[in-house]
Design goal:
alpha/beta; about 25% strand; Dihydrodipicolinate Reductase, domain 2; single chain; about 350 residues
């Protein structure tokens, strides 16, 4: 009898995952809300996940996990979540949870994604997806086997100024695209944190911020043909790089420059696209888009929402919408894998002091 009950429980989870992407017997239409477990109660969960699930009328956080009891208790109290855990598998064992956000340090992603997929939970995993492309492949395979959604937290795709530039490119408004330039700087000190431990983070600023940059290059320009890179540690007392530059060439021949740093506090953050007919500059610091077509005047488009409110809200809304509509998200595990492969080539370029195909 015990064995039968266990099999039934497992089968129910399998059917739930399968139904959301292809079957009919999943009960999703009867659900009023998608029930969420948040794995990780650190800073990014507070900025990019908790507030936006709370605002989404189709979602409800019903459990949180942190290795630290105090962090779990604080999050549960602030976001009015009944149940908290210091063991993440306790969250996954619950049949009343449909999906999870994974916001833990990178070295924990692989195990948590695989275990979440096996338990039939849909997954929103923060970037970087994993420590290596090998790990990412395994995560994708298990998600596919269990027919669950695996979405990656590449939030810059949801910044509407970037989306407007992508539309410009698609409409050929800027002409033939010639160059891509991106600068991302964080005014942070990661000394004595897991971000500065290669075994836990996979690298320094190139892994942390650069993973977003190469995803934006792929999304706006196309697949990468080759990379070359330089990096150094100038200011922070860490064993990983605090500053780096990546040179890219797309398969279509577009040239790209990515500049990254944790240690230049007065920096602007921009995405710039240069074409044969025009230029578009997304200025994160001013939350605006400036563009010019041919020899016309510069036009400025102000964003109507603060950056954080826009990108994270739209990202969470898209994840919930993908579950309800049983469709793959716009940014999935394969995007995480491809970006990791590019980052691995970047580190290889620095090590071997040459361009990597």
């Amino acid at each position: 009898m015990t064995g039968r009950l266990k099999c039934k429980k497992y089968a129910a989870r399998e059917n739930q995952g399968a139904g959301l992407l292809g079957g009919e017997n999943n009960g999703i239409r009867a659900m009023k809300k998608i029930r969420i477990g948040v794995l990780g109660c650190g800073r990014h969960a507070w900025i990019g996940h908790f507030p936006w699930y709370a605002q989404n009328k189709r979602a409800e956080i019903i459990a949180v996990y942190s290795r630290t009891e105090a962090h779990a208790r604080k999050a549960a109290k602030r976001w009015k979540v009944k149940d908290r855990y210091t063991g993440y598998k306790k969250v996954l064992e619950r049949d009343d949870i449909d999906a999870v956000s994974i916001t833990t340090p990178v070295w924990l992603h692989k195990e948590m994604v695989i275990e979440s997929a096996k338990s039939g939970k849909h997954i929103l995993c923060e970037k970087p997806m994993a420590l290596s492309s090998k790990e990412a492949k395994e995560m994708i395979e298990v998600a596919n086997e269990n027919k669950v959604i695996l979405m990656l937290g590449f939030c810059h795709r949801f910044y509407q100024l970037n989306a407007k530039v992508k539309k410009f490119i698609g409409e050929k408004k800027l002409g033939k695209i010639i160059m891509f330039h991106n600068r991302f700087n964080l005014d942070v000190n990661y000394e004595n944190t897991w971000f500065a431990q290669k075994g836990e983070a996979g690298g320094g600023v190139i892994m942390d911020c650069g993973i977003h940059s190469v995803d934006l290059f792929r999304w706006l320009i196309g697949e990468v043909d080759s990379v070359s890179a330089f990096m150094n540690t100038f200011v922070q007392k860490v064993v990983v790089e605090d500053t780096g530059i990546i040179l890219l060439k797309s398969k279509g021949g577009v040239l790209g420059v990515i500049e990254l740093s944790w240690s230049t506090p007065s920096s602007v953050n921009t995405v710039e696209i240069y074409g044969s007919k025009g230029t578009a500059v997304v200025d994160y610091s001013k939350n605006e888009l400036r563009y010019r077509i041919k020899k016309g005047r510069w036009i400025t488009v102000k964003n109507n929402q603060p950056y954080e409110k826009q990108v994270f809200k739209l990202e969470i809304d898209h994840f919930i919408d993908s579950i309800i509509k049983k469709k793959q998200p716009a940014v999935n595990g394969h995007d995480g894998l491809k970006s990791l492969k590019i980052i691995e080539a970047v580190y290889r370029s620095v090590k071997e002091k040459r361009c990597i195909k």
